[in-house]
Model the fold of this input.
Amino acid sequence: MLPPEPDPMSLKPLRASEHLHEVRYEIRGALARRAEQLEREGHEIVKLNIGNPGAFGFRMPGSMRVAVVENLHQADPYSHQKGIFPAREAVVMQQQNRGVMDITADDVFIGNGVSELIMLAMRALLNPGDEVLVPSPDYPLWTASVVIHGAKAVHYPCRPERGFVPDPAEIEALVTDRTRALVIINPNNPTGAVYPREVLEALAGIAERHHLVLCADEIYDEMLYDGAEFVPTATLAKRALCLTFAGLSKVYRACGLRVGWLIFSGEREHARDYIQAVELLASLRLCSNVPGQFAVQTALGGHQSIFDLTRPGGRLHATRAAMLGAVAGSRWLSAVAPQGAMYAFIRVHAERLPGGLAGFDDQQFALDLLERKHVLVAPGSSFNVPYRDHFRVTLLPDADQMADVFARIESLLDEYAQAG
Done:
């Protein structure tokens, strides 16, 4: 005789790990799930919440696709835990061309996108109670990668009135004896800020004086507008350990390949135990996606097609211009013109609306925009800022669609005003 089946109502609730209690990634959270429901009901949603170029018709360069296909016969086995040598050597050559001369292929790790490498780097570094200086606003994976390991993300402000460029003096005032690392996102997600050389020099100096690990997220390194200059952090950090993160997802429009890299440069002798810990974690996941690694050498050599998209007449430049034009003509919005990356961080002047700033909530605004106008954006508070009057959009639609999106946003805010 079979035992009776357990009553589902009597089962003890299965709780998620406590490590996840402070982890947030609202870019793919409740709003995105509601957008999926609306799509299943037959609505067409314009999704501006995620920087996903392929969803808007962008394609990786054809030469990268050929490189993957022609090397598939070599992609069956695991690769070395750090990645295939040609990919790592191509990264070294790119860095040397930028002035980072003290690295070899042994200093490069290939991963399943930058996201995986950030997690590996933080897991190998942090203990409970440690602190990491993270920008606010930030790409929320950085905060998540800190708190998931029991450490504390200490957010330093990148204020709108400074063009979202941080103040080094404010950052240094936050350093304590528990601070382990300083995170820089340049060009910045979500704001599009590109940091001046003198600011980066000051941040490198902070890392050197306080013996901090300098983490430079540079995934948008060649996505620049209107003459903005990108300065690689590693060229300025000679007496600190510098971790540079980049990859194929954004500049090369190849998100689905899941190929990123982490480069160790600067002062490394004191950090051998830490670097070996990163290699241990890389070994535990065996290796990263092998077919995609064969695209790296081709991507980093030759013509850089991203410049055709970001210069005047290019699609990204045109969409950025359409966004700036729409904001300039709005009764309710303003924006700091993004100098890099593929986003804009838009302010809603809620003080002009009934109820004022206290009555405006970016999460509710984003939900209303989704429900009423079928546009999905990321609320500003998703990026770990203390204010609730911003939202982020991607610059991936074409210019006409972007103009239409901002017409819908303006219409919603007009409805707010009329409703009182």
